[in-house]
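ok trying this again, last paste got cut off
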Amino acid sequence: MTSNEWRPILAALANENARLALAEIVLAEAAAKGTNLTDAQRGKARRALFGASLICDSGGTLEVDTANLRSVLATPDGGEQQRGNERFMHNGRIDRYPANQTQRHEFLRWISGQVLQVGEVLDEPSFNDRLGQLSDNFALLRRYLVDAGLVARTPSGTEYWLVNSNIDDGGDADGKVRG
């Protein structure tokens, strides 16, 4: 989707008649397929709609948050859009990884600088604790950092450090960055 292709989608959702027409289509599809939501599925879907600010609670009644939709449409860039590596974070934690490999490498490079300082060597539990502050799946993040060549480890996996190519300063022969 290009930079403004989302605007007609939000504009349609902000329009009551367009929403009703969409609801009729969605309900007809569900009826034709015999699809019904369980209470758990309905709750999860509503939480997602609340999280996306598509619905709101108006005195105990769920409503489409048209004020929010119109507000987003009224801003030139669609609201406060994060740039750089922050766009992959939510509340200080990794929300998703970039699909583009160049962006992913740059993101992981940035993450490695967040968890390790130049010249610092951490044991595995300490490194895992730091990664766990950024991601529930610290083992996957650790694997990504090592596989990307941004963080090195001992063969036994007991110590971790920044690889010298990860920063502009030099390192020594063992690949450990020295301050």
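PB: full thing came through this time. The chain has two domains: 7-74, 84-166.
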